[in-house]
Amino acid sequence: MSNAMELLRLNLSRVRIPEPTNRIYKQECCISFETPKSEGGLFIDMNTFLAFGKDCVGWNYEKTGNPVYLHIKQIKKQVGEDRPLKKPTLLAIGVDGGFDTHEPEFEETHNIVILPDYVTLPFPSVELPEKVRLAVDAVLMAEGAERKEQITAWTADKKQISQYAMNLEQIKNGVTVPPSGWKCSKCDKTENLWLNLTDGMILCGRRNWDGTGGNNHAIEHYKETGYPLAVKLGTITADLEGADVFSYPEDESIEDPLLAQHLGFFGIDFSSLQKTEMTTAERELDQNTNFDWNRIQESGKEVEPLYGPGYTGLINLGNSCYMASTMQVVFSTRSFCARYYLNQDLRKAFETAPADPTVDLNMQLTKLAHGLLSGRYSIPAIQKDDIANDATSISKAKQEGIPPRMFKAVIAASHPEFSTMRQQDALEFFLHFLEQVERVNAGNPALDPSQSFKFGIEERISCPSGKVAYNRRVDYILSLNIPLEQATNKEQLEAFAKLKEEKTSEGKEVSSDEIVRPRVPLVACLANYSAPEEVHDFYSTALKAKTTAIKTAGLISFPDYLVLHMRKFVMEAGWVPKKLDVYIDVPNIIDISHMRSKGLQPGEELLPDAVAEDEGSQRLMANEDIVCQLVSMGFNQLHCQKAAINTSNVGVEEAMNWLLSHMDDPDIDAPISQGSKNDDDIFVDASKVDTLLSFGFQEEIARKALKASVIRHYHLILWWRY
Question: What is the pTM assigned to this prediction?
Answer without folding.
Answer: 0.65
